[in-house]
Amino acid sequence: MELKALTPEEKQVAILIASGLRDKEIGARLYISKRLVCKRIQSIKKKWSVQSRVSIGIMVCHLGWYDCSEKARVISSQWAKNKHGASGTNFRHPRVGKDA
Question: Which of 6, 32, 44, 89 has its CA 20 to 30 A from that of 51?
Answer without folding.
Answer: 32
